[in-house]
Amino acid sequence: MPGARESLLDAAGAALARRPWPAVRMVDVAASAGVSRQTLYNEFGSKEGLGRALVRREADGFLAGVERVLAGAGDLPEQLTATAEWTTSAARRSALLRALLTGCWEPRLPAPALAAVPSLSSVPAQRRADGPLPSPGELVVLVRDRAAAALSGGAPAEAADLSRACELVVRLALSCVTAPPAEGGVADLVRTVLPRRPTP
Q: Are the beta carbons of 100 and 85 closer than 8 angstroms?
């Protein structure tokens, strides 16, 4: 029931924006999504399952957003600058994403264990959510590798340099998530560490 699942995740996210996770009630999430409480439990199994699914969706949305930004026009420094800016702005908008990127889980958020949990669900999306969730270090590697793959057009000899540059930008963006710079500061920082390549 994909439509109901997304509606329930949206309703849970909206409830989390209004109150801490311990105060979010399953019956209210179901009512807000316009489905029965049984449908909610069929999809997620428990409140913990719902919390894991929210975190999984946030991680997947972040990685999809990185790929969208990397698909944009521009040279390597421009694309990496855009990725860093998007990462910091997305983390500013989402407490769940900030927690995923930094590992600092506020008491008001669901804080599922990153290790996989036993799943009895027959719902494929929930079985995936019950699997391992990415740690901040794993997200760095995922973004670094996706950025390097998206931006590699050069010779294989440059692959290691590109991978290091991508990781540096990701880690710089994460430092800006935890200690935000002044307006425009993310782009200025990235431009400082990634000098433009001379054009042929």
A: no
pLDDT of residue 34: 95
Q: What is the DSSP string of the chain?
A: -HHHHHHHHHHHHHHHHHS-GGG--HHHHHHHHTS-HHHHHHHHSSHHHHHHHHHHHHHHHHHHHHHHHHTSSS-HHHHHHHHHHHHHHHHHH-HHHHHHHH----TTS----SS------S-HHHHHHHSPPPPHHHHHHHHHHHHHHHH--S-GGGHHHHHHHHHHHHHHHHHHHHS--STTHHHHHHHHHSPPPPP-
CA–CA separation, 165 and 147 (whole Å): 10
Q: Do residues 56 and 133 make contact, with C-beta atoms less than 8 angstroms apart? A: yes
What's the pTM value of the predicted model, to 2 decimals? 0.88
Single out the residue of 41, 37, 65, 36 nearest to residue 53, CA to CA. Answer: 41
pLDDT of residue 199: 46
3: which residues sit within 8 A by CB, 6+ positions away? none
Q: What is the pLDDT of residue 156?
A: 58
Q: Provide the pLDDT for residue 45.
A: 95
Residues 132, 57: contact at Cβ < 8 Å? Answer: no
Q: Which two structure tokens, joined as six digits, stand for 169?
A: 């930008």
Q: Pull the structure tokens for residue 34.
A: 């316009």
Query: Letter for the amino acid at 188?
Result: D
Q: Counting beta carbons within 10 angstroms of the beta carbon of residue 4, is it exposed (0 to 12), middle (13 to 18) or buried (19 or more)? A: middle
